[in-house]
Amino acid sequence: MEAPLAPGSPPGARAGRPAIAIGRIERWYRRATGSRDGQGGAVTVIQRFGSSLALNLHFHVVALDGVYVTGGDGRPSFRQATPHQADVEALVAEIWRAAERWLRRQGHPADDEVEPDDEDASALLQQASLDGLEAVGARAGQRVRRTQRLGGREMALPPRCASCEGYNLHAGVSVQASDRGALERLLRYTLRPPLAKGRLSEAPDGTVVLELKRAWSDGTWQVSFSRADFVGKLAALVPPPRSNQTVYHGVLAGNAGMREAVIPPAPERTEEEQATRKARKLTREPTRDTPGWADLLLRVFGEDVLVCRHCRGPLTLRAVVVHPPATTRILDGLARARPPPLFTGP
Question: What pTM, to 2 d.p., does this model score?
């Protein structure tokens, strides 16, 4: 789900208010399932960037496709509903009206023009990023340079997606409860970073070139920044201090009364099983419910911690030491040890 800022809106005005949209979505599920007292659940990741590094505040929401209802025996049961295209179109219009009402109450009507404080560098960087302008350097105030291909085309919205007055609602992705791999891919997408280093390069004139993952409808497939403006674009994406960027709603919230009844309980383990599980988490051997730390480091950072960086031979976990002063003595011993020979092979 996306709710991008309109030009001239105050930077951050719509950030941090996913409850406005989530409340309307949960209300729709209650109506669709006929469950007046049903409770939904969702996890929202507040994203601050678009594909071109421009400041583009929007919400990635992973929501339960239904609501939980408490029966006469006190146990919750799940009622599912599937939105169709007409439902999404009506829902995005409802979210638009609710969000604009909230903005007006905060003193920001639709035609509000906000002049950033000249002494607030963060606000100036954010406003330039919103407007697609360079903020610093010799080209400050000019449009960000684009590289376009001929043959730009009109992009049609995918199924179960709709727009209304600058608000976009994308409800076309669903995952079966038993498909844990697809769920992981979806969650990794919602948490993705602003850019992939593989699409970043430096031009001969020193400018930073970012290749877009997908070409825009006007044919744009690259954007270029000066070195200073590239840093400025990244600075504009930094969230406010002490501001949660992942928000839990409904039955998935930490203090929800129904949370313990709908979240699978952690399996009971003996002390020996807990020690074995802790040791396995440090290796590539996965446990039943989570990959090993070595596997996670390889997948996220491309760093294989179980291969010696000197001789490229395999490393084996011998013991897990978690309490000082034993850890201190081991580290001191490693510091005094003679390093292995450097790897000189191909």
Answer: 0.66
